[in-house]
Structure formats: structure tokens, C-alpha cells
Design brief:
Keywords: Cell membrane, Membrane, Transmembrane, Transmembrane helix, Transport
CATH class: Mainly Alpha
CATH superfamily: MetI-like
Number of helices: 13
Family: Belongs to the binding-protein-dependent transport system permease family.
Helix content: over 70%
Number of domains: 1
Subcellular location: Cell membrane
Protein name: Peptide/nickel transport system permease protein
Radius of gyration: 23 Å
Membrane topology: Multi-pass membrane protein
């Protein structure tokens, strides 16, 4: 008679029971945090905006009425209508469809940058804060040099040096964002390394790498998540700026900043060309910012008491 358990021999219900027992405190904190977010108007508004943008980005291939790169010169610069909700561009391409597909690109840029910068910055900050000494000084002085330049200016310089492309723009923006995560995590790591459980881990024979991975970084994740939410909006804005000046996504890629760059030439007569992509950038950045602010407030220990 075949067994109803997985090949590993672990009953899923038994695994779930053990997981609840081992992570009961984390689960209670997670549920409590969700309750606070539901009662926070800014969190609700921000999450609704983010959810709407994510839905439009994921569903773009099915809800976009036209091919975003199909050229129809007979319909060039048509005003908004039922056939073209946001009008068309100078090549007759449907702006509504291009804006929807542009959401996929912008959100992907934001998530990739946060993933790369957040991961590297968290590791650098945790190592610097936990180890301290000359290594801390060396890491933080290098990061201070990066922070001494405005984010947009440095991203423009790096993107220009690497060459105009979407991949290089992502790399440039990620490099600029690393110090923000590193400084935040370093500050938290300096406090965490003085905790009694760190001393207990050292006494038990745990190595420095194990302590950083299993104790220091997990205790910094809540702050990293909050900063990551805020950085997504900033990243979308910087990436759109790079595309606006020709250093990001290249034609015919439907990217919001690139669309505004071309649309500004027609702004006086064909206002819809640049207006709708700009509105999507505005709404998306506001959504991530207000949700990040609300999440920061909810995770504040003074409020959680």
C-alpha cells in the first residue's frame, strides 16, 4: 500500500505543527503586524496602489489592447479615444499598452535593485558592525565616498561609463543604493553584537560567520525591509531619469522615462504622450513611499507596545 507521506517521509501536517511550535513567536509578531497595517490608513492606501501596479504589470500581456511595439503610422499622435485609451505616439503605437508593459520593466528594476543592493549592503553592514576595528573603518570609508555624491549624479556617471542599456542602468543604480543598506545594518549590528545571546553563541563555539548569518542579519531584517520598500520608489525614479536622458532602456522598449523623453517634444499639442507615463511614475513612487512610511511606523517598538 503506497504511503500518503512525501518521499522525504515527513508528514506535511506534522511538519506544519513543528514549524508552528518552533516559530510561534515570529508567527504571532507577523499576525500582529498585519493587524496594525490593516488599521493604518496610509498602509492600506499604499498597499492598494502597489497591488494595483503589480496586477497591471503581471496582467499586461492579457489586458493590453494592442501590441506595445506595433507601428501604425496612419494613427500617429491620435488623441485619447475608446480605441486608444491614452492616445498614440509618433509611430502610432498605443500608449496605454506601452504604459502597462512599462510597469513590468519599472517594477522589475525596483525589485532587482533592492535585491542586489539590499543583499550586498546587508552583508557589508553586518560584517562591518560585528567585526569592527580596521575592517569597519575600511568598509565605511569606502561607502562614505559613494555617499558623498548625489545618487542621481553618480548613477548617471556610472551608466554613462558602462554604456546605455537597461542592464547597465540596473547595475549603476544598485551600486549607488548599497551604502544606504550598509549604513543602516551596521548601526543595528553594533547594538546586536552587545546582546547576551551573541556572547552565549561565542561561548558555545559558534564561528563569526555563523553568528553573523544566524543572529546579526536576522535581527536587522525588519529595518532592511522598511528601507527596501522606500528604495523601490527612489529606484524607479532614478531609473526613469536615466532612461529619460538615454542611458537606460533603449527604443523600442516601453519604459516610462524613455516615453516621457520623447513625449516632451510633443507636450504642447499632444499632451497625453508624456502625461500618462509621468502619472504612472508619480502614483507608483507615492504608493511605495507611503507604504514604506507606514511600515516603518508600525514596526516602531514604541508603537508596538
Amino acid at each position: 500500500m503506497p504511503s500518503s507521506t512525501p518521499r522525504s517521509g515527513i508528514d506535511p501536517m506534522e511538519w506544519w505543527r513543528r514549524f508552528q511550535e518552533e516559530h510561534a513567536w515570529q508567527l504571532r509578531e507577523f499576525v500582529f503586524t498585519l493587524g496594525l497595517l490593516r488599521r493604518n490608513p496610509s498602509a492600506v492606501a499604499g498597499s492598494c496602489i502597489i497591488a494595483a501596479m503589480v496586477f497591471l504589470a503581471l496582467a499586461a500581456p492579457w489586458i493590453a489592447p494592442h501590441d506595445p511595439i506595433r507601428i501604425s503610422l496612419s494613427e500617429r499622435l491620435s488623441s485619447p479615444s475608446w480605441h486608444h485609451l491614452f492616445g498614440t505616439d509618433e509611430l502610432g503605437r498605443d500608449i496605454f499598452s506601452r504604459v502597462l508593459f512599462g510597469a513590468r520593466i519599472s517594477l522589475r528594476i525596483g525589485l532587482l535593485v533592492v535585491g542586489i543592493a539590499g543583499g550586498l549592503g546587508t552583508v557589508l553592514g553586518a560584517v562591518a558592525g560585528y567585526v569592527g576595528g580596521k575592517l569597519d573603518d575600511a568598509i565605511m570609508r569606502c561607502l562614505d565616498i559613494v555617499l558623498s555624491f548625489p545618487s542621481l549624479v553618480l548613477a548617471m556617471a556610472l551608466a554613462a561609463a558602462l554604456g546605455p542599456s537597461l542592464r547597465n542602468a540596473i547595475m549603476a543604480v544598485a551600486f549607488v543604493m548599497i551604502p544606504k543598506f550598509a549604513r543602516l545594518v551596521r548601526g543595528e549590528a553594533l547594538a546586536v553584537r552587545e546582546k547576551p545571546f551573541i556572547a552565549a553563541a561565542k561561548v558555545s563555539g559558534a564561528g563569526h560567520g555563523w553568528i553573523i548569518l544566524h543572529h546579526v542579519i536576522p535581527n536587522c531584517l525588519s529595518s532592511v525591509i522598511v528601507l527596501g520598500t522606500l528604495v523601490v520608489g527612489e529606484t524607479i525614479l532614478i531609473a526613469s531619469s536615466l532612461s529619460f536622458i538615454g542611458l537606460g532602456a533603449q527604443p523600442p522598449t516601453p519604459e516610462w522615462g524613455a516615453m516621457i523623453s520623447v513625449g516632451r517634444k510633443f507636450l504642447m499639442d499632444q499632451w497625453w504622450y508624456a502625461t500618462f507615463p509621468g502619472c504612472f511614475i508619480l502614483v507608483t513612487v507615492i504608493g511605495f513611499n507611503i507604504f514604506g512610511d507606514a511600515l516603518r511606523d508600525v514596526l516602531d517598538p514604541r508603537i508596538r507596545r
